[in-house]
Amino acid sequence: PGNSRLNTEKFQRNFGLILPQWELGVKRMLTEMFTTTTI
What we know:
By secondary structure, the protein is mostly helical.
């Protein structure tokens, strides 16, 4: 990414993790926000 603070490659490498793309999390959050009913 253009902003190096958002780069998770080193974190993933050091901890042996594979993180999902951030876009998927945003899409899921927006879907949940706009499909839940409020009481």
